[in-house]
Amino acid sequence: MSRSTRRQFLRGAAGTTMAIPLLESIAHTSVTSSRPQQRMAIYYVPMGVVRKGFFPGEEETVLPRFQGAITKAIGIQRPVGNNPFESLTPSQTPLESLKHKISFISGLDRTYKQGTDVHAQCGSCFLSSATMESVTESAYPLDRTFDHIVADAIGTQTPFSTLTLSCNSHKNNKESIYFDNISWYGTNHVTPSIRDVRQAYQRLFGTRKKGDLRDITSLVLEDAKELQRSLNTTDRHKFEEYFDGIRSLELQIERLEAMRSEIEKADIAMPPEALLPRGEYIRTMGDIMVTALQTGLTNVATLMIGPERWDTPYRFESLFDKPMSHHQMTHSPHKFVEQLLQIDKFYMEQYAYITQKMDSIVETDGSTLLDNTIFTYGSGLGDGTTHQFNDLPILVAGGGRLGLAQGRHIHVADETPLANLFVTQAQAFGMEIESFADSTSTISGMLS
């Protein structure tokens, strides 16, 4: 095992490898004295949100009727500028302990291009926001997405320039790829998502034999013991914590697979994916994403929480007594408003879990993984009932070491493009970018 490379690996039997975080004890002084790697992650939520639960000042607004056509809804007028991110709305309450490292950016818009489905365009174009005139070979205003633009700057030295994960394991693909992918190499060229937790784990840790995947930690145990003897006290504790976390992740994957197997044996009419616990699936994918960022396997990752418009049901454990279709409920908001509010909070709980995990990982300079990561929560719809493309729900966690000023609620002026957010983030990464897609400027107050 090389002791001079940034990415360290444990090696074991049957071709197994396990990446480990950068540890001061086994790295050159020139490496440890440098700043930690810059990272970016995206957490994309389908079907928008229920505005009265997410946006301050809209709690008492009349719930809109379902509108099948795109509309630019008029929300509550909020003063433009920066305010402390203090009073969390019901859908944001899982962020209470993290709000000092999160900013709420409201008022950002995307422009809808007529001739394509609302859901397909809001998902596939979320990280692209190409101008209406710039793409001629597709009906969608879809160009190379922002994750790849950033990876060109901060992901060239990692094994995976980007990591693209999805929490949609359903096999009944009733919709086109435009409803189910947010990362694209370019127009009409999708970045395939990894949807199976075992496949994601296998790809990251490089095991060659499927049978060996059950317990990678055991296969590399001897190398791990040898490494531990060379670590100082701080690194030994960090390594043991990481090694235990990987073993816990293995057990979590095995649990989900055993559950799926039992469901398949029961021959229930509903697909197994509908009955698997939704939160556990998302958290496992989140753990995999965080591990990849922690170990330097990638610096750029996207996590699509679910597909747009699919009617296939999911089991939102702790919420409902049967699997429910998020999309279908948005078409009957007056009937399902309480359930929809619960789903919004449920997805926020998973975002908070991943964010907290990032903030618990200490880097070699004493900062946390979250401090060196810009982790964005967002959706391509401002409301799943109205299908509006304006006033999108956007949160940005972390990035304190990259110059992002956190703990704020920033409300931008009317007709501010979502792409302004991406230009601002690109500049935080030190990229010499003045514009991206349909951007007009940066967002004032985001950079300290």
Topology, element by element:
Blueprint (H helix, E strand, L loop, with lengths): L7 E4 L5 E4 L8 H4 L6 E6 L6 H4 L26 E4 L17 E8 L8 H7 L21 H9 L8 E4 L17 E3 L2 E2 L6 H9 L10 H4 L1 H8 L4 H34 L5 H4 L2 H17 L5 E5 L21 H5 L2 H28 L12 E6 L15 E5 L9 E10 L1 H10 L20
Parallel strand pairs: 3-9, 3-10, 5-12, 6-9
Antiparallel strand pairs: 1-2, 4-12, 5-11, 7-8, 10-11
Written overview of the protein:
This protein is α/β, with parallel strands linked by helices and 448 residues long. It has two domains: 1-34 and 207-270, no CATH class; 38-197 and 284-428, Alkaline Phosphatase, subunit A, CATH 3.40.720. Helices cover 32% and strands 14% of the residues. The chain has helices spanning 29-32, 51-54, 118-124, 146-154, 197-205, 216-219, 221-228, 233-266, 272-275, 278-294, 326-330, 333-360, 419-428, and strands at 8-11, 17-20, 39-44, 81-84, 102-109, 163-166, 184-186, 189-190, 300-304, 373-378, 394-398, 408-417. Strands 4-12-5-11-10-3-9-6 form an eight-stranded mixed sheet, with helices on both faces. A two-stranded antiparallel sheet has the order 1-2. Strands 7-8 form a two-stranded antiparallel ribbon. Helix 10 packs parallel to helix 12. The longest helix is centred in the middle third of the chain and has 34 residues, at 233-266. The chain is globular. The two termini are 41 Å apart. 50% of the residues are buried.
